[in-house]
Amino acid sequence: MEETQEEKLDMKSLAQELKQRLSKEPERKDKKTKEKKVKKKEDSSDEKIKKTSGSISQKETKEIKQTAGETLIPLEDYIKCAVHLGTKVITPHMRKYVYKRRADGLAVINTSIIDKKLREAIKFLAKYDPEKIYLACKREAGWDAAKKFEETTGIQTFTKKYPPGITTNLILEDFFEKEITIICDPWIDKNALNDTAKLKKPILSLCDTNNFTQKITELIPCNNKSKKSLGCVLYILARGYCKAKKIRFTAELEDFAGELE
Fold this sequence. Notes:
Helices cover 47% and strands 11% of the residues. The protein contains eight helices and seven strands.
């Protein structure tokens, strides 16, 4: 039986639809592959930061000491924790905090500025009581330090996952209100950043050289990738905050950052 013109058109449209679906499938696979590659690249970058944290030459240490004045903790501890080591990427927002690049391409953040911004951050936080503040740290390297921060300061902390909308959606069972948010990375902790920005409330953020700083009220330029660096910064913040609020504080740097080499 000979096909009618209408049947031919239907078959043609079905064939075209199937062809379009098949062409989209590789695109989806390519997209997932690209996302995995980006994630792997980020992970390897983080791992590299951790490895290079301990490989700081005596010449570099001497150079840093010459540019830094009196600091909140001994300069050697800043260096051991690699708080000053950034990434190979420097955003326009973070360029002013960078002192130089190392031979391996990693940016070096000005230690004097780190110390100065930590002092400013402590004064900024001290305006608020613990129950008015919360901290978000999705990066695994900072979980232990974040929990110690909560234990010593009484400030509520979210690790692993921050539930989006928890401070903006009134119908959520676990909805709560705070006056200020601390985040450990504006990209990783973007849910907490965006929720706080919607409420037009202040945000204190730890920012590495590859971060953008839109919506952030106060920032601390530092290595926010490694466990030791995150521990060191949160230790200084916790100690300074507790001193300002007259909260008993007995923890040591090692309690936040682990054993120093």
